[in-house]
Design goal:
The complex is a heterodimer of chains A (about 260) and B (about 425).
Chain A: E1 2-11, E2 17-26, E3 31-35, H1 42-50, E4 55-64, E5 67-68, H2 74-80, E6 82-85, E7 92-96, H3 97-111, H4 119-129, E8 143-144, H5 150-164, E9 168-172, H6 180-193, E10 199-204, E11 217-222, E12 225-230, H7 232-252
Parallel strand pairs in A: 3-10, 3-11, 6-9, 9-10
Antiparallel strand pairs in A: 1-2, 1-4, 4-5, 7-8, 11-12
Chain B: H1 25-40, H2 57-60, E1 90-94, E2 97-104, E3 113-116, H3 124-129, H4 141-148, E4 153-157, E5 167-173, E6 180-182, E7 185-190, E8 195-204, E9 210-212, E10 215-220, E11 225-233, E12 239-248, E13 253-260, E14 265-268, E15 271-274, E16 279-289, E17 294-303, E18 308-318, E19 323-332, E20 340-349, E21 355-364, E22 370-378, H5 382-390, H6 395-411, H7 417-431
Parallel strand pairs in B: 1-5, 4-7, 5-8, 6-9, 7-10, 8-11, 9-12, 10-12, 11-13, 12-14, 12-15, 13-16, 14-17, 15-17, 16-18, 17-19, 18-20, 19-21, 20-22
Antiparallel strand pairs in B: 1-2, 3-4
Helix pairs in contact in B: 1-4, 5-6, 6-7
The chains are: A alpha/beta (about 260), B alpha/beta (about 425).
Chain lengths: ~260, ~425
């Protein structure tokens, strides 16, 4: 489904190189977790894949279902089924959740020659998704993220994911800032959305998220590269010994640069 | 011997004389007063503080003539500009001249007067208040209107009367061969505990040059209440200089919302004067300009007695090389305690060449008041655009939606559904013009 080959990216217009050769393959039905210390490039990777104009790809390519999407705009990638749950969801006063989601849903439907939903059909559709994230009806008519608590914003991201039903989702530190109850609700939501046709890539600092959403693969990112991949045991190892130990081990094995 | 430098007056920019031809004695007296002031008060230049930033070339580079000499087009069907809520509570003025045929006031309570000033010149309220409320020191535009108006709109709402139907004052301007001047006038008298909604609209049907100088006077008696929407959609070549003023007695409420969409030059000086304790007023504005439009608002919220609540939200969107100027004065007199006044000016710049000048100005002489103000100038945030785009919306649509959201709040205050719809359409037209 997703194949990232030797991806290098820098901040547009500046000499700040962040991604330095990322390789990643994600198949349908898989859940991946990317872990790594601050500044390793995890968030940047999710932004580059979703088409943030702040970054420029200098080398390598991003293939989505075989198509090179490296040059596509963010909305075109969304039309193909990519989704990014933001680390810091943006507040947009004056536009309700419902307005945004109907516009988004129908734009994606149009781009894929699927039928659009009229306001009444959409109302039914969107209300059927509220349960996934344990959300109240009134949430729909509130301005996007405006005055939301940190937890509500993160829940809203997963709600949007449920409504737009993407093929591949990047969750950028969706767990950060959540208390344990909110974390359970958000994780529950993600687990309900995950199926054998879609895929999810979680980006996180903390192993605790992985107690609630079980990844098939765990990758460790450092200095702009995925330096080690494995199963859930890799995350447990990191939790026990930290990133420093891993870095030393790699140096000893001659795997790190 | 000192040398006297002769400065231009308003008369320098019009052809012919301004001798009064009004039939009514009361109107003629105001015409005369205006003419005298016009001859003596110099036309403003950039050296005058209140005119520092505004480019007045669209007036000073021209000569404006009387309507009769302009060869203005006759009026066609204008029913698309009627408001469904005000089908029979409407006065129409064409190029500043009252048009009885297109006006209709059948829907109003019998004791309410909505008509033209010339026909009601003998009414006591007209005799008592017309020309007495306007008070603009060293101004040439209010005197210009004073000097040349012959007619206008007159609205009188008697004691304890609530007019449920909105009253639509429709000023239509047609195409013309020559640039002409017009002086629409509106006198509103609200007796004790009366209430009404006024939609004052200025529409240019073509893109000709004209000079529109309206004066509106609102006399608000004890406990009276008015919602006053002003929609300026003049021709994009016109100059519009407005003098709307309201004076409020005890417990009166005056809420005004000015929407600026048209005109090459728009200068608006709304003033609300507190004439007794415990009043409540709003002086909101929404400005959407592009091309080389200039929109300049100089407002005064004049608190002279204790216990007033006042509010001003002035929102501006600037595109291309348009220029917005805002100077919002809040005055609080020495003994005017317990004033709660709030002013906010938010500017959204959509282009590199657009320009915004903003100057909140608080002059407070009382010591127990709550007055705040704020001004922001910003662009659409890349992160906001990316957020919407990542959800599948095109970049263009994302930007439109963000500008729409910015303007929405002001539009929602309109209180009349068809006006809200009309303005939402205008906002959409403004934001997606590049798409057409």
């Amino acid at each position: 489904m997703l194949e990232i080959k030797n991806l290098h990216a820098k901040v547009e217009g500046e000499d700040i190189h962040i991604l330095k050769g990322v390789n990643l393959k994600v198949n349908a039905g898989e859940i991946h977790a990317i872990m790594g210390p601050n500044g390793s490039g995890k968030s940047t990777l999710s932004k580059v894949v979703s088409g943030h104009p702040e970054y420029e790809v200098t080398e390598g390519e991003i293939l989505f279902n075989g198509e090179d999407i490296t040059e596509l705009d963010a909305d075109e990638r969304a039309h193909l089924g990519l989704f990014l749950a933001f680390q810091y969801p943006v507040e947009v006063p004056g536009i309700t959740n419902k307005t945004l989601l109907r516009e988004a849903y129908n734009t994606i439907a149009r781009a894929n020659d699927r039928e659009e939903l009229d306001p009444i059909e959409f109302e039914d559709y969107i209300e059927s998704k509220l349960d996934i994230i344990n959300m109240k009806d009134e949430f729909l008519s509130r301005s996007i993220n405006t005055g939301f608590s940190g937890g509500e914003k993160k829940k809203n991201e997963i709600f949007q994911m449920a409504v737009l039903n993407p093929v591949l989702s990047f969750l950028d530190e969706t767990d950060s800032g959540l208390d344990i109850d909110a974390l359970k609700v958000v994780s529950d939501g993600v687990n309900k959305i995950a199926n054998d046709k879609n895929a999810i890539v979680m980006i996180t600092h903390y192993q605790r998220l992985l107690n609630y959403i079980k990844p098939d693969f765990v990758h460790v990112m450092m200095a702009g590269k995925l330096i080690k991949s494995g199963g859930i045991e890799l995350a447990e190892d990191l939790e026990a010994n930290g990133y420093d130990a891993l870095e030393k081990e790699l140096v000893l094995n001659g795997e790190a640069q | 011997m000192s040398e006297v430098i002769q400065r231009d007056t308003m008369l320098s920019y019009i052809t012919g004389s301004v001798e009064s031809s009004a039939e009514s004695v009361a109107i003629r007296a105001i015409n005369e007063r205006g003419r005298e002031a016009l001859e003596n008060i110099p036309f403003p230049t950039k050296k005058d503080e209140d005119w520092r930033f505004v480019d007045l070339k669209s007036i000073t580079k021209n000569q404006f003539c009387k309507l009769e000499e302009a060869n203005a087009s006759a009026l066609g069907d204008i029913s698309e500009h009627y408001l469904p809520e005000a089908m029979n509570s409407r006065l129409v003025f064409v190029n500043g001249v009252y048009n009885e045929e297109f006006s209709s006031v059948e829907d109003l309570p019998n004791n309410v007067i909505v008509g033209n000033l010339a026909a009601h010149a003998d009414n006591n309220a007209v005799k008592e208040h017309l020309g007495t409320i306007t008070n603009y020191e060293n101004d040439v535009f209010a005197p210009f209107n004073d000097a040349i108006f012959k007619d206008g709109a007159f609205i009188y709402v008697p004691e304890e009367t609530v007019v449920k139907t909105p009253i639509h004052i429709l000023n239509i301007f047609t195409d013309s061969e020559k640039a002409f001047y017009a002086a629409p006038r509106l006198l509103y008298v609200g007796e004790m505990f009366s209430k009404s909604t006024i939609i004052e609209e200025h529409i240019g049907l073509a893109d000709n040059m004209y000079l529109n100088v309206p004066v509106t006077e609102f006399k608000m008696f004890t406990g009276s209440n008015v919602h006053h929407a002003r929609i300026q959609r003049d021709s994009k070549k016109a100059s519009h200089v407005s003098r709307p003023i309201a004076i409020l007695d005890k417990n009166a409420e005056y809420h005004s919302y000015t929407i600026c969409l048209g005109a090459k030059l728009f200068r608006n000086d709304p003033r609300v004067i507190q004439n007794a304790e415990e009043v409540d007023f709003t002086v909101d504005g929404l400005v959407l300009i592009d091309g080389d439009q200039i929109a300049d608002t100089h407002s005064i919220m004049d608190h002279r007695f204790a216990h007033a609540g006042s509010h001003q939200q002035h929102k501006v969107v600037v595109n291309d090389s348009a220029h917005s100027i805002f100077n919002g004065k809040i005055f609080v007199a020495k003994d005017a305690q317990k004033i709660d006044s709030f002013q906010e000016n938010r500017n959204l710049l959509l282009s590199d060449n657009g320009k915004v000048n903003t100057k909140p100005q608080l002059e407070i002489f009382a010591d127990d008041v709550l007055c705040s103000h704020g001004a922001t100038i910003g662009q659409l945030q890349d992160e906001e655009v990316f957020y919407l785009q990542s959800r599948g919306l095109t970049e263009q649509k994302s930007r439109e939606l963000l500008v729409y959201a910015f303007a929405l709040e002001s539009v929602e205050s309109m209180a009349v559904e068809s006006v809200e719809k009309l303005l939402l359409n205008e906002v959409i037209k403004y934001t997606n013009r590049d798409n057409k």
